[in-house]
Amino acid sequence: MADDGMLINFEVGDATAKAPPPKFKGGKWRDRVRANKTLRNGNKPPLPLSRCDEPERPAKRPRLDSSPRIQHNNPHHEASRFGSMAVRHGKPPSLGGMNINSNANPRGSGVTSRLFTANPEAKTDFANVALAEGGDDEEPTKPSNAPLSEEAANFHALGLSKRIALHLSSKLEMKAPTAIQKSTIPQLVKEDADAFLQAETGSGKTLAYLLPIVQRIMTLSFNEEGMAREGRKIHRDSGLFAVILAPTRELCKQIATVLDKLLRCCPWIVSTTVIGGESKKSEKARIRKGVNILIATPGRLADHLDHTKVLDVGTVRWLVLDEGDRLMEMGFEDELRSIVGKMRRHRLASRNKEGLELDKLPQRRVIVLCSATMQMNVQKLGEISLEEAVHLTAPRSSSNNAQQGEEQAKIEDGKAVFSAPAQLKQTYVVAPAKLRLVTLISFLKDAFARKGSVMKAIIFISCADSVDFHFDLLKGQPQASPPNEDDQGKPSKLSPTAMTTASAAYLTSPANPSVALIKLHGSLAQPVRTATLHAFAHSKYPAVLITTDIASRGLDVPAVDLVIEYDPAFAVPDHVHRIGRTARAGRPGKAALFLLPGTEEGYVSLLEPSDSSNATSNSITPLYYETVLKNGLATPVTSYPITTTAVEDEAEGRGQSWTQRAESLQLHLEQRLLAEGNNPLLDAARQAFRSHIRAYATHVKAEREFFDMTQLHLGHMAKAFGLREAPGGVGGGVTRRTGVHHKPSSSVASGGKKRKNGASGGMDASGDDRNPTAAAADDAARRMREKMKAVMNVASEFNIG
């Protein structure tokens, strides 16, 4: 029977088959090339390189620090130690029962690094810290910035008229003043001296200087008994009597809101605001109509003083510099020098243009400087503006606990030492870089797990790009887009907050099934910023505001129960103002600061109170990330915006322990970034990472020993943004943000020529041709902007003002 195949015999000689040349691995590529060349020449390679034909070496163990590692009670912890070996053999390990397939990472091997391995050891000794979960049951600390008792003081006894005192008690529900108001109001009502007003955040500094101003303006029309004076009725065209400067537009709006409520008892006194981002023409029209109290930002006021002839400062008696430290930090020193100089050079009018005697007003220009801190720049501003000023603070009294805990900034050994309101409970969370994102979500999820425990929370982040990314990541399923036309067939207009508010994902619970998510930063248009802040302040549902330092100064939002500093402040004074958004006017509040283990833990030493008598009430309690994860992930996360492989595994019950739920949540977030068609979120994560690293390098010099760039693990930090590897381009410099709502404005004069904007972004609304003096002012403004760009070249990216 014939064979079906063909048999071929090969003659094999005596010589053995030549083995393929060995390949070398390890070391530098130049050494491997040199070793291969030496081997081809018949020589023995002198380099200690390993050969690929040698037996496989065991997997390289994870890199460890000199300190011992944290041991976790995780059944998959041992398996994770050999994860790298499984990858080398092409076998993806099983991470806590999660199904990781090739679809999870279409651009890579589909294997993610573990969250609980290779993390640095925390320096804080948590074994000696009582991590009591029932801390809310403790006896509350008596507040240090609450109003005093009615027996101790009342507004009428401080020198205010019965009309104002009755309005405060009946309409504004303010029965008694705070400690700083008790010290300030009599001084400003009776005396004409300059004043430096210093008190802790949330203690009522705004009303402390507004009430004396309104009271003394009212005396032009009424006597002390409240009877009207003959022929001395004040109205909006009687003259400008007070100018109030604030560093940000949001703070100007808030001061205007407080003043409007106060002026309801005397509606003939008119106030208005002139700030950047709004029409300069409409501002000039309001000034032309007449105004008695003007609230402004320094740049826009300086521009109006130069180009608005109807703005007469001859009758101005008060100049208030609110948040003086922030005014100096934002580079307004030249504008403030110019404003103060023009005020002093202008002759003080004894009567207005109608012939009304202004004898009841101060007979000199009174300058009031307000600040919650006393830094070197505040002292410099005081030297520029104040003359023989009186220092006004809240008095300390050992018999009145409501007046203790005064926040002062003292200079000790060249460092500023601060204290917070006594009723504010502060914690700092030590979380490794890889676990920052899941720890933040767990912290918020636990905070909103009980109804009424937290109504509003503010998360401070270092830069605007990171705010945008975290808002897009944490928001829920986007709602259907509104129709392009309304019922009448006209194009519909989107709400100003359409892109800044959404429902939150991951944070909801049966007690709070709906949580609003809101973002705010300086790259948003001014109408959007105003509407967004209003939406957060008046939200009737639990809400989370993700913001930069733009919301850290002076803003008084009702019912803010929690402040989270996800990124530490650039300086200790900024930290004081951040946590000052809660625990205001005697209300309780909580603040949490996220720190990386290692050198950042030493930053707490700058925040601890220096006064031993207040050490108990103002001490900062450490909190380990394991406690946060256990509390937040005690129940599964249910409100996922999209379904991923990690979500399916969680639904099948594969992740039951808090460690497995944390890894499932992290994997889900990474899968969202890599999902097909979701590249904008991935690009946003990369840009947020780059901006965050750049912002990390901008801490003040005195604090860089705690925020050391050389100690920052970029690969671990990338996981905090849902990335599996650190993107490049971090050191490429600041990139101008795109998609910003601001548009370059230009106006066409009557002659038909376009002119450049003035010092604050607008031209003279009258449309008259600029004279040489105005051109010189424009040139000076341009040089100033170039100087500011060199000093604050990161302002457009970090949006801190």
TrEMBL record:
It is found in: Nucleus, Nucleolus. GO terms for biological process: rRNA processing. Residues 1-83, 475-495, 729-783 are annotated as: Disordered. Residues 51-66 have a biased composition (Basic and acidic residues). Residues 186-392 form the Helicase ATP-binding domain. It comes from the Eukaryota. GO terms for molecular function: ATP binding; hydrolase activity; RNA binding; RNA helicase activity. The Q motif is unique to and characteristic of the DEAD box family of RNA helicases and controls ATP binding and hydrolysis. This is ATP-dependent RNA helicase. It comes from Zalerion maritima.
